[in-house]
Amino acid sequence: MDIRKRQTLKRATALLAGLTLTAAAMAQSGKPLTLMVPYPAGGVSDVIARIVSPVLAKHLERTVIVENLGGAGGAIAAQKVLNSPADGNIIYQGSPNELILTPMAVAAVKHKSEDFRPVQSITLNEMIVFARKDLPVGNGDELAAYAAKMAKEGRPLTYASVGPGSLYHVLGEQMSKVLNVPMTHVPYKGGAPATQDLMGGLVDIFITPYGKAYVELVNSGKIKAVAALSAERQASFKSVPTLNESKALKGFVFDTWQTYFVRKDTPEPVVQALHKALSEVANDTGVRTTLEAQGMIVPKPLALDKVTKSYSDEIAQYRAIAKSINLQAQ
């Protein structure tokens, strides 16, 4: 064996040994790992965490506790992670909403997207334009025409969000910009009250990811699924056209995700150990089946460098959209 091959083997052996020792040290520390969810219990994010946590505990051979800490668009939970030691004992379950958009939309938030390092994704969440049950539209072009008609009459189409600067606010503003039609933003404190008002006919549309409960609301006629934001039609709503199929909103394709993050200065062996465990969780048949039953997609685990690149690409994409709609921090 030549010197170069021996050096490569030596480095690989050292890395494997380091990962093994790190995983063992994390398991034997006696300190529970905290899975930080930036929303109250009962929402989609919490459901994901409750499914993941026992399986992650098994792979790490340690206790995993789910902590729900809502407020400020996810910033309160994010700041708690940043204020904690960079030892991998607290990880953040986040999405573009909390870690990319909130820092741009909430003036009081001082952290940046780059203060966090992604470790592994767990779900890809498709989105639908849901509407009040009597909204007279059934696809993207009809939605565009109705929005133009209402704006001309001085009664702009209303769209719900979970707060200023949230993903659903930004997508509503982007839709308004693409259509060149004014629409009225109606912010709520969460998805539940927004959905309640949608069912009550108090708001016209709500662009949001969804779980099984939304499918049941549509099937029972309490709300309407107008169009999907995915490139192709979705398994849960096969008869619902995509916005991409329309002329007015062709190319309006978006989804969201749930990914696990740590502080950017977390030691590399710790990040590698967490990445390995979370990848095993994402490959777990029980986890995948349970999450998919909720209407979510569980993508194949990515290599750590690809997770990092995907996050960087998303940051660039949403910063460009925020600039195009002149999103101002409030």
Structural summary, described in words:
By secondary structure, the chain is an alpha/beta fold. The protein has two domains: 3-125 and 256-324, 3-Layer(aba) Sandwich (D-Maltodextrin-Binding Protein, domain 2), CATH 3.40.190.150; 126-255, 3-Layer(aba) Sandwich (D-Maltodextrin-Binding Protein, domain 2). The chain is 46% helix and 19% strand. It contains eleven helices and nine strands. The chain has helices at 3-28, 44-60, 75-83, 96-105, 140-152, 167-179, 191-199, 212-219, 268-283, 285-293, 304-324, and strands at 33-37, 64-68, 90-94, 116-132, 157-161, 183-187, 205-209, 223-228, 255-263. Strands 1, 2, 3, 4, 5, 6, 7, 8 and 9 form a nine-stranded mixed beta sheet that branches. Helix 2 links the parallel strand 1 (33-37) and strand 2. Helix 4 (96-105) runs parallel beside helix 11 (304-324). The radius of gyration is 21 Å and the shape is globular. 42% of the residues are buried. The model has no long low-confidence stretch (mean pLDDT 91). InterPro entries: BUG, Bug_dom1. Residues 1-27 form the signal peptide. Pfam families: TctC.
